[in-house]
Amino acid sequence: MTTLHRRTVLASGAAAGAGLAAAAQSPAAGQLSPPGIFRHGVASGDPLARQVVLWTRVTPSPDATPGSGLGPATKVRWEVARDASFRKVVSAGTVTTTAARDHTVKVDAGGLEPETWYHYRFVSGGVTSPVGRTRTAPDEASTPDHLRLGVVSCANLQAGWFSAYRHLAARDDLHAILHLGDYLYEYGPGEYGYGRANVDVRPHDPATEMVQLADYRRRHAQYKQDPDLQALHARYPFIVTWDDHEVTNDAWRGGAENHQPEEGDYTLRRDRSHRAYDEWMPVRMDGTATLDDGTRLFRRLTFGRLAEISMLDLRTYRDQQAATPLLDPAVDDPERTIAGRAQLDWLKASLTAPAQWKLVGNPVMIAPVTFAQVPQALIGPVDDVTGILPRDGAPYNVDQWDGYTDDRREVLTHIRDRGVRDVVFLTGDIHSAWACDLPYDAATYPLGDSAGVEFVCTSVTSNNLDDITGAPPRTASLTVEAAIQTSNRHVRYLNFDDHGYSVFDVTPARAQMDYYVIGDRADRNAPAAWATSWATRSGTSKVMPVDRPVTGA
Amino acid sequence: MCEPTPHTRRPAFADGLDEIRTGRRSLLKVVGAGGAAVAISTAVGSAPAAAARSPKRAYVLVLDGCRPDEVTAPLMPRAAALRDAGLNHPFASSMPIMETIPNHVMMMTGVRPDRSGVPANSVYDRTEGVVRDLDRPGDITIGTVIERLNDAGLTTGTVLSKEYLYGVFGARATHRWEPAPVIPVSGHAPDVATMDAALAMLDAHDPDMVFINLGDIDRVGHSDLTGPLSLRLARQAALAATDLQVGRFVDELVRSGRWQDSIVIVLADHSMDWSRPASIIHLQPVLDADPLLAGHVVIADNGGADLLYWTGDPASRGAAVARMIALASDTPGVLEALDPLVDPTLRTGPLGGDVVVHARAGWRFTDPDIWSNPIPGNHGHPATRPIPWFIGGGHPVVPRGATASEQARTLDVAPTLADFFGVGAPVGGYDGTSRLA
């Protein structure tokens, strides 16, 4: 979600427009990949033990630009090898792509060995693509000593450079990248840029909000030409889910905050965005890499006995957000859902999987965040009288699980009823970094037990609190952070100001999140620095500070 | 529920005395570390310890009812240190029914209840027409690893603090503690007395394998009235006290020079969950109100699990099971009602009832009467599956400071012991897995 609503964005966008063009013309903006048949790079994703999704896009003719619907059918050969020089090709094939799929190529390369690094490339018209590197998952029965993921979310191209991606790509110790959503943004230039003035460090293409299929395709194409994102895609397989901005802000199953009637039928718009996502992302939808066979995104990826990741889709099936965050009893309505019945049952089954760590790729925050704590035992009686007190206290953000407390209660109750341990929610969305326990009763916590933990990564570039308030970093936000932590004793770490990325490392003994922050997003070469680390020891369901980040392989 | 139940006589200690009086076991009384007399019986005819016997030793230390998140350095420093220095299995589970007797039996047999004959603490015995505890030596219908070790010429010992555990394992071990004192209400010996006995047994007989149950954590947990409030004040005191006994045991192994030859398997038989007085599930009247079921269902209450037995026309079993499942599933506090013939996870066997009903976390059963189960702490339901499971000791086979992601179970103790001593598996193999493999 973005905290700026569309009206605010439109009002501030025009004023910022002049500065944007200048920024876009800077030499740095010219560092896109050179024209060529493989100008959108290569990518891989959804690693299984013996197969992985490979992706690229070809531009076979000058008119075959993204979203154009033009250009000839083109044969593309793909190859997977154990070595970067491709002397030991272990899997290969040829596919034909057309304008009907925007000349994207997505194959599910099989015949691979578990827990193995591979190199892959594409060949078309005598031209060879850049070489990508990917890694298969461990076999289901294996016991890997660790799994290490880069964790990112909320990368708004207009708000700055993707230095977080560049720094992750420079590491050599990861197994995959977990992207928790808001991989791209729907806004046009002048809407939702850098800082309080919404300056566009780089303007979006097309120069309009994406609504039509061609818009979504062009926007994906623009992001895929970012050199830092290209480098990261080529370096590691991605495990992705979407949040709202892949369609539009604050999406729900029947609409979105940033969808107006004049933009047409919302469901058709969402279908177009999902189509473009399926074309342009290295992900299996409905369990396959083929198009036109469904767009179910929630899925599991297993990493031996050590861990299983359940990737959630919390936008496609949810009911509309409650209207008034602090007082609307709808947040507790058991008829309202954030996950949908089928996905909720699927998630509950995931949590009783035989893997030790149950990791949940969670697009929006699940830990309760409230400003008014009332013991749960008193909420029922008070509700009988007033009917206004949310069961888990007064939430501040009803776009996340706080706005759908019955679903959350069902998940947490399931964890408790089944004696499930080692549950970790890995979350994006809110442009800030958090480490939290997941109390069964936030009002009395730390008295009582915790169902698991939640680590929230901050945004790659999207604005956060200091950007919105205009206050210097680590000044005004400190007061807000302290207030939230005072009212929410399960929130152990909170940083509302910084942008960056995280590294998540899980071993049989513990799961650890390292938080890295970058410098100025407008700086093409912004440095990165380690900020803090938090971990949960297996079996404890509580986070604790750690004095150093993970290093080495 | 592992509180003593009033519906059967408990003859275990009396049977043990008979074995001594009739000369089948000899009795040795030694002075324990605390100064009190410790009585250890030994099977007559067992071979005395050979001078050149292997120095390998294995000890199984059951922290009865302990939750894995309770083994923390501040609360249980000795147990935590043992865990952290050895091989820890944080993903470890008790097995259905998550009760004391079946899980101790699973530890020593390495097989599920449909093979061992012991699915729960309390069952309905159709032959005798009574609900009774499975506390008789003949209730275990398969050989245990204790007998396998004995048959291999090794010596074994049981130091079991609970009367029904003493009963079900009977005279299997070469050396057996004759528990005293036993707290009348709880039917168990306090941990300090149990550890006195364990150390005395080591000193007097030095068995190759000793199986020890420390019952205080469980017993105090059952009755801790602050449990439902998440305070667990009495429980925490018990955890700290039991940890002292763990420390005494480790210290003795080091002092006596056994440490470098030993493995020490530490685990619990089940976890513990607390319920408020109003969070009770009383199924008997629900079933009695049904025309088909009335008068034809017997319930064996196991705290967090009710076992329902159809006693009517066998031809109507299918319909009766369906009715029991439907009625139980609609009762507040019930997590699930399962047909063991259909559900593959239970493997409770013929003694385990026609329907197994599990409570939600924070609830307990009380059957057949509303007053049958007044205690706040219970187990038997899936919420009480998590257990600590780790191997310490100085023997080179024990990994140092390692943590494993594989799921460990109570079932894994016997195959681990068999692996360590090289005594093989029963016909049909173990259902568990050696954690030293």
Our count of helices of chain A gives 10
Q: Largest interface, and how many residues on either side?
A: A-B, 28 and 25 residues
The CATH H-level superfamily of the largest domain in chain A is: Alkaline phosphatase D (PhoD)
Biggest β-sheet strands, sense, barrel of chain A: 7 strands, mixed
Fraction of residues of chain A in helices?
10-25%
Q: Roughly how many Å apart are the termini of chain B?
A: 34 Å
Average per-residue pLDDT of chain B, rounded, comes to: 93
CATH class categorisation of the largest domain in chain A: Alpha Beta
Would you identify the CATH architecture of the largest domain in chain A? 4-Layer Sandwich
Q: What would you call the structural class of chain B?
A: alpha/beta
CATH topology title of the largest domain in chain B: Alkaline Phosphatase, subunit A
From the N-terminal CA to the C-terminal CA of chain A, the straight-line distance is 34 Å
Poorly predicted tracts of residues of chain B:
3-9
How much is the radius of gyration of chain A in Å?
22 Å
CATH class of the largest domain in chain B: Alpha Beta
Keyword list:
heterodimer, A: 553 residues, alpha+beta, Purple Acid Phosphatase, chain A, domain 2, Immunoglobulin-like, 2 domains, 7-stranded mixed β-sheet, 10 helices, 24 strands, 21% helix, globular, B: 437 residues, alpha/beta, Alkaline Phosphatase, subunit A, Gyrase A, domain 2, 10-stranded mixed β-sheet, 12 helices, 22 strands, 21% strand
Describe the fold and architecture.
The complex is a heterodimer of chains A (553) and B (437). Chain A is of the alpha+beta class. Chain A is built from 10 helices and 24 strands. Chain A is 21% helix and 24% strand. A 7-stranded mixed sheet of chain A has the order 11-10-9-21-22-23-24, with helices on one face. In chain A, strand 3 and strand 4 (89-97) form a beta hairpin. Mean pLDDT of chain A is 89; it is low at 3-33 and 378-390. With 437 residues, chain B is α/β, with parallel strands linked by helices. Chain B has 2 domains: 55-275 and 382-421, Alkaline Phosphatase, subunit A, CATH 3.40.720; 280-375, Gyrase A, domain 2, CATH 3.30.1360. In chain B, the strands form 6 sheets. A 10-stranded mixed sheet of chain B has the order 1-2-9-8-10-3-11-20-4-21, with helices on both faces. In chain B, helix 1 packs across helix 6, helix 7 (191-204) runs parallel beside helix 9 (233-256) and helix 8 packs antiparallel against helix 9 (233-256). The two termini of chain B are 34 Å apart. Mean pLDDT of chain B is 93; it is low at 3-9. The A-B interface holds A 143-144, 304-307, 354-357, 413, 416-419, 421-422, 444, 447-449, 507-509, 538-541 and B 68-69, 88, 90-91, 93, 229-231, 271, 335, 360-362, 381-386, 403-407.
